[in-house]
Batch of 2 targets.
Target 1
Amino acid sequence: MYISVFFSHILELAQKEGLSLEAALEGVRELGYVGAECSERELLSHPDAPALLKAQGMRLAAVHGSADLVKGDFESAAALLELAASVGAPNLLIVPGRAETVDTKQAALERISEGLFRLCKRGRELGVGVTVENFSSVLAPYSTEEDLRALFDMTDGLFWTLDSGNFRCVCADPLNTSAVLISRAANVHLKDWSLTPHPSDGSFLASDGTRLYCSAVGDGIMPNAEILRLLTAVGYGGPLTVELHGPSDPLTCLKASREFIVRQLPKY
């Protein structure tokens, strides 16, 4: 395992602290982060990002982006995969669309599986793993363990990006996640939430109407320590990528998040 961060937080840090991108990357590396996950948009707007990461001794942990496979947009999905391969990313996290209503989730699941099956086959040829995350919307037919198990059963070669904070968004318990499902994890987002209002930070409205506020990993309500133990138990060896939801002080949150992870996993 290694500790990574969303590239968007490096950009936020540069903006808020008045730093160049190179200086922000150096600061994040000095905090102990050794990888970053980039979005498709970030790679297109910052084509030098992979080289800048490499110059700091950091890895590109994954690439993420969206393509609506429910509507049959395989071309966009294939382009995402090619981009991930071109920058040497080990994994692609794709958000493959969602149902229009809860009643149409099964039909959406089947369309998504068809597209992902083709994408995974191409991913094996390119050496890029294809993943989906447990998403933060109940309309996504991959938001709960039941959804994910059904999708994995239908889609050979598909992997999971475990997002620890998204469980709470759809009122699911991450500690009920089976070892079988966790063994499919190829990428991890560590996220946390606070129930205390922080007007200057970002927030998210969960499916039960609870307002969730940005928190450093380990400072909130999510059982991230237990999740790390579950990952260790199944021999997970990929990135642990810190994801924050609109932090007003990214530097403090990034520092606290990494310190929390290191306390749970001292050798990292």
Target 2
Amino acid sequence: MDALNIVMVISVILFARLGIRLLYQYNKTKKEDKNKDKPNDKIL
């Protein structure tokens, strides 16, 4: 069981890092989309 626990801890850490990275990129693209919409509103 010790080996299984070690594998579970490593997998949880890797999935947490992946989730944080995905949320960071999602927020970054969300901000970029808002910035792209602002100039178009001024033109219209």
